[in-house]
Design a protein that fits this description.
Radius of gyration: 16 Å
Mean pLDDT: 93
Shape: globular
Bound molecules: coenzyme A
CATH topology: Aminopeptidase
CATH class: Alpha Beta
Number of strands: 5
Order of helices and strands: EHHEEEHEH
Largest sheet: 5 strands, mixed
CATH superfamily: Gcn5-related N-acetyltransferase (GNAT)
Number of domains: 1
Strand order of the largest sheet: 1-2-3-4-5
Helix content: 25-40%
Structural class: alpha+beta
Length: 149
């Protein structure tokens, strides 16, 4: 398995994986629609030097993804911080170290960029994800608030 930065031709596989987050109306996995909005969003992402979408690839198949955002900052000696989001490993490949490899790679990138912290938010119902992040050294010490628009 390799972890690498995603390229445009990975977009369909990434969108298929993101369906597993269950944030949208479920569709058959083969019926993922690559909307023009998603393609426009990808164009913004790939030209943003503070944004990296990672993929885990095994035998030519994309089996996991993660979105890393570096945020410029005025506190902590103006060191940036990093946000990790949209972490998904395909259901059949879980508990095999793929998620850990994705997060480790993201944390390495954040450290190399001089970040002083990496943040991740996870819905309170995602108990498996909470155990995952705790195992990887993230402290559950903050209360998160979210207002959907
Ligand atoms: C959360 C997720 C990304 C973890 O990916 P993964 O490849 O299965 O994770 P790993 O195999 O690298 O797990 C590393 C360690 O984290 C812990 N862990 C991972 N998933 C866990 C779970 N469901 N329950 C308890 N501990 C878990 C274990 O200690 C594991 O090591 P072990 O398997 O040797 O015991 C994956 O389960 C997933 O895609 N879930 C659905 C989407 C989701 O919830 N994403 C997070 C959104 S915030």
């Amino acid at each position: 398995m390799i972890i690498r930065s995603a390229i445009r031709s990975d977009l369909g596989a990434i969108l298929r994986l993101l369906r597993e987050l269950g944030d949208e109306t479920p569709t058959h996995p083969s019926a993922v629609r690559m909307s023009s909005a998603a393609v426009r969003a990808w164009t913004r992402i790939e030209t943003d030097e503070d944004r990296t979408v990672l993929v885990a690839e095994r035998r030519g198949q994309i089996i996991g993804t993660l979105d890393l955002l570096l945020v410029a900052n005025l506190t902590h000696d103006a060191k940036p911080w990093a946000l990790v989001d949209n972490v998904v490993v395909e259901a059949g490949s879980r508990r095999g170290g793929v998620g850990r490899a994705l997060v480790d790679d993201a944390v390495d990138r954040a450290a190399r960029a001089g970040c002083y912290k990496v943040e991740v938010l996870s819905h309170e119902r995602r108990h498996g994800a909470h155990a995952f992040y705790t195992t990887l050294g993230f402290d559950n010490t903050t209360e998160g608030f979210r207002r959907y628009l």
